[in-house]
Amino acid sequence: MIRDLFKVPIWIEDDLVDRFELEKLEWICETFSKNIPDYHHEYNPDTYKISRNSEINILDLPEFEPISNLIREKAIQMMLDMGYSEEQTKRLKNDNAWFCMYRVGDSVQMHVHRPSFISAAFYIKNDTSCKLRFIQDLYKMSPYPKEPDNQWSRNSVDMDCPPGRLLLFPSDCAHGTDQIKGDVQTEEVCKVMLSYNFILQNN
After folding, report:
1. Distance between CA 76 and CA 91 in Å, rounded?
2. Residue 32 backbone dihedrals phi, psi, to 5 degrees
3. Phi and psi dihedrals of 46, rounded to 5?
4. Cα separation of the two ends of the chain
5. For 55, which DSSP code?
6. Upstream peptide bond of 148 is cis (omega within 30 degrees of 0)
7. d(CA 119, CA 171)
8. What is the rounded CA–CA span in Å between residue 77 and residue 63?
9. 70-79, pLDDT tens digit by residue?
10. Using one digit for the tens of pLDDT, what is the confidence trace for 11-22?
């Protein structure tokens, strides 16, 4: 009998906050991004603005505290649904977090967030059709070819990323995006998101 093994759990929650809060978060990211150089991050060379490894740490900023706490609560709910105990959830700590801002032509190379435990992607703005692709096994010929895929063999999935959507997933799950397409190259920011990494503290 075929058993359903090794599937990657992905928590999806829409409308995490209302439109007013999304607009507020977009404004906050835009304000802080003015002090960040364009395309400066060596591991994210195709991201217009990224606060990671800059002097801006959103975990230390009161403007981001409500959304950071809310996302941690959802990560705890995910842990409980995955079978972890309440005692284990008490060890969950927000290790690092950053915001990203994208323009047409930007992309995110496939990567993992080891050695973190759970990672989060929260979308504040997305005026594009760009999806977040998850790959379970990077050693397979993935995500192509797709023709023979079925529920047992499928090794990749593309997730829509509308504003207000939260995606939580194991940090060792590879993910990335294709290049953002547009009819005309523009200087306007078309996607804004927050990323979080959680770890389990030692007792």
Report:
1. 10
2. -70, -25
3. -105, 20
4. 40
5. S
6. no
7. 5
8. 24
9. 999 999 999 9
10. 999 999 999 999
